[in-house]
């Protein structure tokens, strides 16, 4: 039996349509960032279109997350992202210029992430580096699965566990298992705000270091949980819920689709809190996201006691709604 160890973000490319949409989305957001410097009116129009495209991208991914991967967390998040992206586009077009910061962040995320999907040697290097580190931790814990080449992608990234009666449990790492998606998120956010380079570099190192370590830990946990069938006492409820024909997949489902993905969300929030302590300029982005979700304005810099002059970054004299 086989199972890929997935990540928080999709392993693009998935099919031709998401692949094309991903590149179009990034190109549109990059164009928005460039136009913002010269013609904000045109930039609002292009940015609004970029956000609508971004919503379409998540809408196309929803069926794969929800029905093929059977991921309730990723499925729910991708479905929720569709109206939020469209609403962000509307707000930007209507004049909420603080959303240019979030738009720049998405552009930077794509510039960081997409090369690893399109350049073979970068993807192979990253997947195999994380795979070797995952295997090293597994061996330190006293387990000795066969560590070999994955049949599907050809990378040295597969783990084969064999139980006492000869059953084998096979998992392999793909690009999404490397944490590059989460690192791209923070890299994009940090790149988008205006702050001293020293603080931005420190925030980036903090975020990437924590994500890298936690991602290896998660890969180890999923491989061991599936390879040793740790959660098989949930076979009845899970097979009825998600329709697995192979009961051996239950341990993988609980380890990855439930525990790891829920904890990943918690971890990202915790990392964001740590990064904001060094880079309070990110509060502008958080305020915009909070507004898009709740429809209410927030002044988080005042709430947490930050200096307004640093918390607002390049929009120090601009309210969250774009007003002076």
Reconstruct the topology from this structure.
Elements: E1 2-5, H1 16-36, H2 40-68, H3 72-93, H4 99-118, H5 120-140, E2 146-149, E3 156-162, E4 168-173, H6 180-192, H7 197-227, H8 235-242, H9 249-278, H10 283-294, H11 300-303, H12 308-311
Parallel strand pairs: 1-4
Antiparallel strand pairs: 2-3, 3-4
What would you note in describing this structure?
- With 324 residues, the protein is an alpha+beta fold.
- The chain has one domain.
- 66% of the residues lie in helices and 6% in strands.
- A hairpin with a 6-residue loop joins strand 2 (146-149) and strand 3.
- The chain starts with a strand and ends in a 13-residue tail after the last helix.
The description of the largest β-sheet is: 4 strands, mixed
Radius of gyration: 21 Å
Tally of separate helices: 12
Which secondary-structure class do the elements indicate?
alpha+beta
Q: Secondary-structure element sequence?
A: EHHHHHEEEHHHHHHH
- Across the major sheet, the strand order is 1-4-3-2
Helix content: 55-70%
How far is it from the N-terminal to the C-terminal residue, by CA? 60 Å
Number of strands: 4
Quick one: overall form?
A: globular
The stretches of 5 or more residues where confidence is low (pLDDT under 50) are 1-15, 306-324
Can you give the mean pLDDT? Answer: 84
Strand content: 5-15%
**In total, how many domains does the architecture comprise?**
1
């Amino acid at each position: 039996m086989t199972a890929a160890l997935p990540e928080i973000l999709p392993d693009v490319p998935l099919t031709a349509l998401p692949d094309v949409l991903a590149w179009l989305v990034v190109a549109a957001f990059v164009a928005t960032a460039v136009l913002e410097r010269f013609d904000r009116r045109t930039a609002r129009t292009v940015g609004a279109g970029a956000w609508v495209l971004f919503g379409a991208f998540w809408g196309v991914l929803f069926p794969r997350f929800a029905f093929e991967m059977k991921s309730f967390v990723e499925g729910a998040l991708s479905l929720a992202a569709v109206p939020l992206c469209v609403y962000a586009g509307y707000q930007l077009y209507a004049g909420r210029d603080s959303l240019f910061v979030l738009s720049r962040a998405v552009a930077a995320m794509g510039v960081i992430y997409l090369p690893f999907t399109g350049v073979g040697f970068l993807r192979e290097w990253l997947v195999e580096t994380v795979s070797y580190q995952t295997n090293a931790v597994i061996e330190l814990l006293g387990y000795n699965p066969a560590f070999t080449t994955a049949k599907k992608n050809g990378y040295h990234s597969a783990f084969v566990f064999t139980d006492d009666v000869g059953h084998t449990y096979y998992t392999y790492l793909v690009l999404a298992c490397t944490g590059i998606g989460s690192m791209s998120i923070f890299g994009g956010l940090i790149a988008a705000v205006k702050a001293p380079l020293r603080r931005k570099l420190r925030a980036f190192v903090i975020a990437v270091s924590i994500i890298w370590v936690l991602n290896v830990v998660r890969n180890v946990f999923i491989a061991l949980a599936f390879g040793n069938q740790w959660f098989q006492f949930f076979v009845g409820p899970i097979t009825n819920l998600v329709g697995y024909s192979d009961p051996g997949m239950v341990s993988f489902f609980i380890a990855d689709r439930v525990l790891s993905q829920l904890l990943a969300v918690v971890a990202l929030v915790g990392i964001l809190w740590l990064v904001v302590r060094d880079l309070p300029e990110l509060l502008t982005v958080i305020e915009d996201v909070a507004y898009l979700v709740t429809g209410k304005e927030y002044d988080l810099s005042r709430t947490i006691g930050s200096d307004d002059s640093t918390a607002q970054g390049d929009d120090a004299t601009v309210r969250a709604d774009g007003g002076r």
